[in-house]
Amino acid sequence: MSEFQEAVKAKYAAIARAVTNASSSAGCCGPSSCGCGDPITSNLYSESEVDGLPVDAVNASLGCGNPTALIDLEPGQTVLDLGSGGGIDVLLSAKRVGPTGQAYGLDMTDDMLALARENQRKAAATNVEFLRGTIEAIPLPANAVDVIISNCVINLSSDKDAFRVLKPGGRFAVSDVVVRGEVPADVRHSMELWVGCIAGALEETEYVSKLREAGFQEIEIEPWRIYPIDDRGALVAAAGVAADRLASAVHDRFVSAFIRARKPATTACCGPTCCSKASS
Question: Which pLDDT score is estimated for 277?
């Protein structure tokens, strides 16, 4: 595992433990490590959406949007949440696909997986499974999933395996942080900001380019929340970056966006059998 992955794993393991420890007292917003005051992770779900969900699933929500609001899920579908954390988006998806569907959550952090499985038990969700693994090597077969969702996790990964596991015609619908324009090098190089979904944010056109290179079509990026100087300044200062010097450089550069794409219904054959036939 890379140094970067270890940093991500350590941070989110600590958050999972903080949520678990706080669940018997004042709740997640007590310890500062839970991130409840983070402008990126706050106010993402309506009361009606979280009603009936385990409190710890809500408290452990650390995303930058609500990917389950991006897409219409249908009964019987299979959904995969990349970087599922405490399981909020998996549990919401499981409700929508119903008992004939399946909702998978993928996470590399044992503490988060333990928290998510406990939330699954509390929610009595029988069509849910949490898997241990990374986005770079998803432990599912090819063409297994109808819909992939993710919440501020894709830019934490240096590689992607999502296209492979999607069924032909499958949809990709994620919330992520994207950047408009250049970002100062000290922000890009800050491990803490990268772990927090900021320094690893891709520029909008780069995000589209990478999805297209992976084979996706019908790519859309819809910014929905622009973070002003006050929000960005607080975050870069917390990571030891000089906020005053960077204020003008980061103002309005970072946005939460809804990102949608689709795997083609049919893909060009690149296997040894058909390619050899084509060349014969």
Answer: 42
